[in-house]
DNA sequence: CTAGGGTTAG
């Protein structure tokens, strides 16, 4: 048999020898612009020849050539080749071409449906995935175990809980629930839809669990604010004989960073080294973020510096790590370093750098950042604009904040809330309220943060009754007050000197008051020098969060403001008895939840 | 041909 490329002809003794040498021809991809022809291969040979040819294809032009040849040889209805064709077209993001070939195929069976569904999934066209799945059912083609992972992934991405549940029912109907890929697909679907309870039912029902099953359930809890449960399951996983991999550890590191628990998080790094993943770039990004969130920015920076390749996400993790932990100068240095090295920042980089500028509080820096954004492709990015509004407000220019606000198109609730909060922090309560009315006229629905902004605005400008009304109108928008709203109300009442009302308010709360609520009461007591009530609030705070030194300092300041120096001394003794020093903040798991990771 | 992870405005 022989292969002809335009005028050149190579002869091979057997088809397998020809296929072996195909690699050689395609390493010069320009050759493929000429026509490639194989001398009449038999039916079996044709399948391996064309699938090999497809695997070497790099462009749509290659696909078209093969497509034409298939027609010439009457192979257009060969399901094996056409399935491959659809898969390869999808890999090359030529999904429309894949669809055309799919539509031309007469009796589509399950492999073809799977291929086109996979194609839409690869191209992130999730609506089409779901649509093709339902067309497949209309066509009375039974799905197989390869169909569902794609469908479930799409349902998860679309947060289409109802579709996913329907697929779940189909899976049972076909008896595929034991299949590892299908079961894990279901698990991750429920996790993405934040249906942790359903996910847990699936997880607990698994007859065998692999590293993917464990990782899915761990990240489910880690990403829904239940890091302790995530870590408990991780401990269980370590007791099983499933081997850890880098993705599992990334999920675990997310749980530790939410806990801001560096003691345990530091052990995680030991574990990473132990299983030999310390140079995994993605794990390094996660660890950089973990160290940053635990306030150990310098440790994070040393991880960052050790990396040879700096992915933009790594830069982002480092910049936001610096920005959020009181090192705005370092964050902005990294940002300018990126610019000078011609590394293109993405929207997250710019968001974090704007945040750093806000933390810095310098109006000059803020203006520089604003100018940078104006001349970049991020000038119309709504998230960046929101950050700019907040930045100007924090850097002291409510006028410039308003200017950014005015030029922001299609303002969403976050943009409005940022501006309301900006006014609020400046004590411009009336302006905040006016803006809220404008927002309602613009038919933008307020959310929990909008109301927090309004309550803050009223609190900072002494508009007690207005704030009270806003708080109570939350329910008209179907919003349940959260701890931050209760804390805002205690601040509103306490700041204005209504300490009794603040206390009454706390006793009528339908939920247990959190640290932030008692903290607000304590600071109000400090303003109005009310020692007795302040001591009461402090006791509550010590009980809730015994190791946080800030509360002790607050109480001490209260005593100092009234000249009660014996009180100041008492606090110092109390702190010493608990082994606390003034500038160390510790964060530990609740008793009984300590997790030990042994490092070999 | 199929399942899990990292940065992210108020």
TrEMBL record:
GO-annotated molecular function: RNA binding
Gene Ontology terms: biological process: RNA modification
Tagged with keyword Amino-acid biosynthesis: no
Chain positions of PPR repeats: 109-143, 210-244, 311-345, 412-446, 447-481
Keywords assigned by UniProt, alphabetized: Repeat
PROSITE patterns: PPR
Matches recorded under Pfam families: E_motif, PPR, PPR_2
PANTHER family, sorted: PENTATRICOPEPTIDE REPEAT-CONTAINING PROTEIN
Protein name as annotated: Pentacotripeptide-repeat region of PRORP domain-containing protein
Species in which this protein is naturally found: Handroanthus impetiginosus
């Amino acid at each position: 048999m022989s292969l002809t490329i335009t005028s050149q002809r190579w002869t091979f003794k057997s088809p397998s020898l020809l296929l072996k040498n195909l690699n050689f021809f395609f390493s010069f991809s320009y050759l493929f612009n000429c026509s490639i022809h194989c001398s009449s291969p038999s039916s079996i040979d044709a399948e391996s020849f064309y699938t090999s040819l497809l695997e070497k294809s790099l462009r749509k032009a290659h696909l078209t050539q093969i497509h034409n040849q298939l027609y010439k040889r009457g192979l257009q209805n060969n399901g094996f080749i056409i399935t491959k064709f659809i898969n390869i077209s999808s890999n090359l993001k030529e999904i429309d071409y894949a669809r055309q070939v799919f539509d031309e195929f007469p009796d589509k069976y399950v492999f073809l449906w799977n291929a086109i569904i996979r194609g839409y999934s690869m191209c992130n066209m999730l609506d089409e995935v779901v649509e093709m799945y339902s067309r497949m059912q209309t066509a009375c083609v039974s799905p197989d175990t390869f169909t569902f992972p794609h469908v479930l992934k799409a349902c998860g991405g679309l947060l289409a809980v109802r579709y996913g549940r329907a697929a779940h029912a189909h899976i049972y109907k076909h008896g595929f629930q034991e299949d590892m890929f299908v079961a894990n697909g279901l698990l991750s679907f429920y996790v993405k839809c934040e249906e942790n309870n359903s996910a847990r039912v699936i997880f607990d029902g698994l007859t065998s669990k692999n590293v993917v099953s464990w990782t899915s359930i761990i990240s489910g809890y880690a990403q829904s604010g239940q890091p302790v449960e995530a870590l408990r399951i991780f401990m269980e996983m370590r007791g099983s004989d499933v081997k850890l991999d880098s993705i599992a550890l990334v999920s675990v590191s997310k749980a530790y960073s939410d806990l801001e628990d560096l003691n345990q998080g530091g052990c995680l790094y030991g574990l990473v080294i132990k299983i030999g993943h310390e140079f995994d770039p993605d794990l390094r990004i996660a660890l950089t973020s973990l160290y940053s969130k635990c306030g150990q920015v310098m440790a994070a920076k040393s991880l960052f510096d050790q990396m040879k390749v700096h992915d933009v996400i790594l830069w982002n993790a480092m910049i936001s790590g610096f920005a959020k932990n009181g090192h705005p100068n370092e964050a902005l240095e990294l940002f300018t370093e990126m610019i000078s090295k011609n590394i293109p920042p993405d929207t997250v980089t710019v968001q974090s750098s704007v945040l750093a500028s806000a933390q810095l509080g310098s109006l000059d820096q803020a203006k520089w950042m604003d100018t940078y954004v104006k001349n970049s492709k991020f000038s119309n990015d709504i998230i960046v604009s929101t950050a700019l509004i907040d930045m100007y407000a924090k850097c002291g220019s409510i006028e410039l904040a308003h200017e950014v606000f005015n030029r922001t198109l299609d303002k969403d609730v976050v943009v409005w809330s940022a501006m309301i909060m900006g006014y609020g922090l400046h004590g411009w309560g009336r302006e905040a309220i006016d803006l809220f009315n404008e927002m309602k006229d613009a038919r933008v629905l307020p959310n929990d943060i909008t109301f927090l902004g309004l309550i803050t605005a009223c609190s900072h400008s002494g508009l007690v009754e207005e704030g009270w009304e806003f708080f109570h109108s939350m329910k008209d928008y179907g919003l349940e007050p959260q701890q931050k709203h209760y804390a805002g109300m205690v601040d509103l009442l306490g700041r204005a000197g209504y300490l009794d009302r603040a206390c009454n308010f706390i006793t009528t709360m339908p939920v247990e008051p959190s640290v932030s609520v008692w903290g607000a009461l304590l600071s109000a007591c400090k303003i109005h020098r009310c020692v007795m009530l302040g001591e009461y609030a402090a006791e509550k705070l010590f009980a809730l969060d015994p190791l946080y030194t800030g509360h002790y300092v607050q109480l001490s300041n209260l005593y100092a403001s009234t000249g009660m120096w014996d009180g100041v001394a008492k606090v110092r003794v109390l702190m010493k008895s608990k082994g606390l020093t003034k500038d160390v903040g510790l964060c530990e798991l609740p008793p009984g939840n300590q997790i030990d990771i042994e490092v070999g």
